[in-house]
Design brief:
Layout (H helix, E strand, L loop, with lengths): L3 E9 L4 H11 L2 E8 L2 E9 L5 H18 L5 E8 H9 L5 E3 L3 E5 L11 E5 L11 H14 L7 E5 L5 H8 L4 E6 L2 H13 L7 E5 L2 H7 L4 E7 L2 H11 L3 E13 L3 H10 L2 E9 L2 E8 L1
Helix pairs in contact: 1-2, 4-5, 8-9
Bound molecules: S-adenosylmethionine.
The site of S-adenosylmethionine has 21 residues, from helix 4, helix 5 and strand 9.
Enzyme class: transferase
Organism: Limnoraphis robusta CCNP1315
Subcellular location: Cytoplasm
Length: 296
């Protein structure tokens, strides 16, 4: 069966780019990518046809225009077209390039010939329809925090990756020295993508277990509390998940939470405090922030 996708393209002022990413992500888009075009920015994003009606797309366009009006910048041009899965695969891949993250990782598109020599650890990735190419600030903040946490070379470190998307955080953690990662995502397409990327990076299914679900499902296969929790999901979802972290945490467990807009930081911090977590550091990039947390 041919699967059709909406290709949504937004030509906007670069100042609007982060809002556009956020709106598209909230809308449920996958494979979001951007490229510079003269003094503008072209953001492309993809969504299965059955997940949006024309009216939804029109409303999205209206929100994007309202965002630009509030920021007093030029209005974006928003267009959408239906394309089939094969076109989708080639459409967005052309915009994605190898991306350095932190001091150690180089995220490398799986369809490009890898360099024979590199002073970085190569993380091979084909996210398919899943979120997590490494180009988004929220993923970068997470991976940089993982690098910082693992710089002390801990032994037998186990992480849980909630909302794994392409698996980029679990794979990154293992390449940086974690012994074991448990990854879950409610989206079956993300589960498929994370498993494929695990294979691309020569990681065994035992070392990186990937299952469909969330914290509840994680509990069925994680029998010991983990050392680190990685979670890059929208703030509203994180607020619901924080009370469930207890079940997989021990007194020294740390967490890295991303996907949080700066103006959502306070409710997240309050929720964490109410559930026995301390915000150790808060890293910012553009309008996003990433919480490094530990038990109080
Ligand atoms: C922003 S993406 C993050 C992907 C990847 N971890 C990264 O850092 O780039 C968020 C992912 O969380 C998943 N998700 C959303 N709500 C969830 C929940 N309650 N439990 C588990 N996964 C969830 C989505 O399907 C999506 O793949």
């Amino acid at each position: 069966m041919i699967h059709s996708w909406w290709e949504i393209q937004v030509l906007c002022d670069p100042a609007l780019e982060e809002s556009v990413f956020w709106r598209l992500e909230t809308f449920g888009c996958r494979g979001t990518a951007s490229q510079s075009q003269n003094h503008s920015c072209l953001v492309s994003a993809y969504l299965p046809e059955e997940e949006a009606h024309l009216l939804d797309l029109a409303a999205l366009s209206l929100f994007l225009r309202q965002d630009a009006l509030c920021m007093e910048i030029s209005l974006p041009v928003v267009e959408w077209n239906l394309i089939d899965e094969q076109d989708w695969a080639s459409s967005w891949k052309q915009y994605w390039e190898p991306t350095k993250i932190g001091d150690l990782i180089l995220v490398y598109p799986a369809w490009l010939e890898p360099p024979t020599e590199s002073d970085r650890i190569l993380l091979h990735l084909d996210p398919g329809v899943a979120f997590g190419t490494g180009t988004h600030a929220t993923t970068q903040l997470c991976l940089e925090s993982v690098e910082m946490r693992l710089s002390v070379k801990p032994e037998n470190l186990v992480v849980a990756d909630i909302g794994c998307g392409s698996g980029i955080l679990s794979i990154g953690a293992i390449l940086l020295g974690a012994t074991q990662a448990y990854a879950v995502d409610i989206d079956p397409m993300a589960v498929r993508s994370a498993r494929q990327n695990r294979k691309l990076n020569n990681i065994s299914p035992e070392q990186m277990k990937v299952e469909q679900g969330s914290v509840e499902e994680l509990l069925q296969f994680v029998h010991e509390p983990v050392d680190g929790i990685l979670c890059n999901i929208l703030a509203e979802v994180i607020i619901d998940l924080v009370p469930k972290f207890d079940a997989i945490a021990k007194p020294k467990t740390w967490g890295i939470l991303s996907g949080i807009l700066l103006d959502q930081a306070k409710p997240i911090a309050d929720t964490l405090e109410q559930h026995g977590w301390i915000v150790a550091t808060l890293w910012k990039r553009q309008e996003w922030c990433c919480f490094n947390i530990r038990r109080s």
